[in-house]
Structures are given as structure tokens and as C-alpha cells.
Specification:
The protein is mainly alpha-helical. Helix content is 43%, strand content 4%. It has a domain of 195 residues. The strands form two sheets. It has a two-stranded antiparallel sheet. A two-stranded antiparallel sheet has the order 3-4.
Length: 348
């Protein structure tokens, strides 16, 4: 059992407190930036778009995430509305941040006229990484915990941070009561999800379509969030059903339907090429792109196509000057057959 009850303040600079929650968010953003720039290069996209894009999306996600949290935990703010906009900020709703951040990303990408779906695949692993890091801010704020548990990784929650009408210390003594660390479960899920998406983008390139990794992110997060909501007691409900579960079903179900539809037999193969196709070593590869440009993949080394039969007797009225080069003699080596992998062939 973890019996530490941390202080939410990391550093006190005179009258200005620096909270662990903000530090976790900043570290998560920095880690996401590093991953985004590296994946952009490997995906053949322009990494220079990451910096400004992150600022736009992060600000939008902060607004949406804060709004979702305030609605979710309205009981904490209804008597003091200034707590919504004044520090310390003690919560962000992931679904609200995803929604407004997605809208901002669509606007930014359309403004720069690049492929939304290819950039969505780049962003998806970074979302998991940021979540895995930033969720630890909930630990220092003693929030995002579940029901009481006797599991060895249960955490202690101070009486002041509990739901007083659900888990009062008079009934659940501080010294003997521990709770499910839901923030830890989401953090571990985010780390595993990131590794899984990175693996998919590297090993299953021929089978991916641009946008598949973002759809997998929605399915993964939706399933995990749906399960974790069963351990919460302070849910925002809609007709008795936790709202987060309804949103999880909507996100995961829609993403699954779209994923299946885009991989149906006979689907169009006009997926956009990366910004720099020759540099792309990660992410979806258009179904027919490897036929028009060199690809250093084992599956790209196809046997040479059978040569079409030639007419041994040219027409009588043909001009010898316009004829092609003479066929090599039997004892002279001819040109090597095209192997399907010509590194000197220019891009179409």
C-alpha cells in the first residue's frame, strides 16, 4: 500500500505556488514535442509544423478539457465560480480536450494544406505519451481515485480530498483505507498504447491507411475509460449512466465502424502521399505507392514482370533510322531485367 499523501505544491516562489499538476502537464507537452518531431521526420512530413501547431492545439485542449472537468465536477464550482478560472487548476477532462484540440488541429492543418489523416497518425502516439506523464499530476492533487481496495498498489487519500458523502473518514479511517489509483491505470494504459501504435506504424505499414492509428487511439482509450468509470463514485451521469461511458462508447464505436469501413474489400486506394515520400519509413503507405517509387521493404522486391512478346518481323515500310537499337547477339549480355526496385528512378 502507498501511504504517502503528497503536497500538490512543488515549489513556493514567494506568493506564487508552482503546482505538480502544472509541471506534469509541461513535462508531458515537452515529451510529446520530441516524439512528434521525430515521428514527423520518419513519416516524411515537415517537422517545422510541430512547434506552432502544438501551441494552437494545446491552448484549445486546455479550454475544452477545463470546461469538461467543470461540468463533470459542477458541485465543486457552483458555489464559487471564480474557482473555474483562478488557480490552482485541479482537473482537466480528457474528452473535452480531445474534442477542442481536434477542432484546432483540423483548422491548423487545413491552413497549411497538408494531409490531416497522416498528421493524425503522428499525433496519436504523442497523445498517449502526454497522458501517461500528465496523469501523475492527479496523484499530487489526490484526485482521480476509485473505490476502496485492498490491492497492494492502493493509495491513501486525505480526508479533505475525499467525497465526504461517500467515503467519510468516520466510516473509512485514513490509516486503514486505500483506493484504486485510477490515474496510475490511465498512465500505464497510455504508455502501452504509445508503444503499440509505434509498433503498428513500423511493422504493418503496407496494411495501414492514413488515419488508422488515430482510430486505434480512440478505440483503445474509449475501452479503457469505459472500464475505469465503473470504479468511480463521482461520475457526471446522464439518466443514471456515467457520461464518460456514453462518450467512450461513441468514440470507440464510431472509430471501429470507420476503421472497418475504410478497410472493406475494394476500398479506394487514392490515399495521399507523404510530404516527402522518399523519406517516409514509418506510418501508412498508400496501397499502390510502392509501384511508382523505391521502397526499402522486403515485400517490395517483386519478381520482374514477364516481357511482352515482340514482333520479329518489322513492317516492310518501316524506316530503319527510326528503329530501336539492334537486339544483342546470343553471346552478348543484354540489359539486366527491371527488378521492381530502382533507387535512381525519380518520383512520379
Amino acid at each position: 500500500m502507498l501511504d504517502v499523501t503528497p503536497d500538490p505544491v512543488a515549489i513556493q516562489l514567494g506568493p506564487l505556488p508552482i503546482y505538480w499538476y502544472g509541471i506534469g502537464y509541461a513535462v508531458g507537452l515537452a515529451a510529446a514535442y520530441v516524439l512528434l518531431t521525430r515521428l514527423a521526420k520518419r513519416a516524411g512530413e515537415d517537422p517545422e509544423l510541430v512547434g506552432n501547431g502544438m501551441i494552437v492545439v494545446a491552448l484549445a485542449a486546455l479550454v475544452g478539457g477545463r470546461a469538461y472537468h467543470v461540468i463533470d465536477q459542477w458541485a465543486l464550482y457552483k458555489d464559487d465560480l471564480l474557482k473555474i478560472v483562478l488557480p490552482p487548476y485541479t482537473g482537466l477532462g480528457v474528452y473535452g480536450g480531445i474534442f477542442t484540440g481536434l477542432l484546432a488541429a483540423i483548422w491548423y492543418i487545413r491552413r497549411h494544406r497538408v494531409s490531416f489523416w497522416r498528421w493524425a497518425d503522428i499525433v496519436a502516439p504523442a497523445l498517449f505519451l502526454m497522458q501517461a506523464i500528465a496523469r501523475w499530476g492527479n496523484f499530487f492533487n489526490q484526485e482521480l481515485y476509485g473505490t476502496p481496495t485492498t490491492l497492494p498498489w492502493g493509495i491513501r487519500i486525505d480526508c479533505a480530498h475525499r467525497l465526504q458523502d461517500v467515503y467519510p473518514c468516520s466510516t473509512f479511517p485514513l490509516e486503514t483505507t486505500h483506493f484504486h489509483p485510477l490515474f496510475l491505470y490511465e498512465s500505464i494504459s497510455g504508455l502501452l498504447g504509445m508503444l503499440f501504435l509505434l509498433w503498428l506504424g513500423s511493422r504493418l505499414r503496407p496494411r495501414l491507411r492514413p488515419g488508422d492509428l488515430l482510430l486505434v487511439f480512440f478505440i483503445w482509450y474509449g475501452v479503457v475509460r469505459f472500464a475505469l468509470e465503473t470504479l468511480r463514485s463521482d461520475n457526471w451521469t446522464f439518466f443514471g449512466v456515467p457520461t464518460a461511458q456514453l462518450v467512450s462508447v461513441l468514440f470507440a464505436g464510431t472509430a471501429l465502424i470507420v476503421l472497418i469501413y475504410r478497410h472493406r474489400p475494394g476500398h479506394p486506394t487514392n490515399d495521399p502521399l507523404p510530404w516527402r515520400p522518399a523519406d517516409a519509413t514509418w506510418g501508412a503507405l498508400p496501397a499502390e505507392a510502392w509501384r511508382t517509387r523505391p521502397v526499402d521493404e522486403p515485400w517490395a522486391h517483386l519478381p520482374p514482370a514477364a516481357a511482352e512478346p515482340s514482333d520479329p518481323d518489322p513492317p516492310a515500310d518501316s524506316d530503319p533510322a527510326q528503329a530501336g537499337p539492334p537486339e544483342p547477339a546470343d553471346d552478348e549480355p543484354g540489359p539486366a531485367p527491371f527488378s521492381g526496385h530502382d533507387p535512381d528512378r525519380p518520383l512520379d
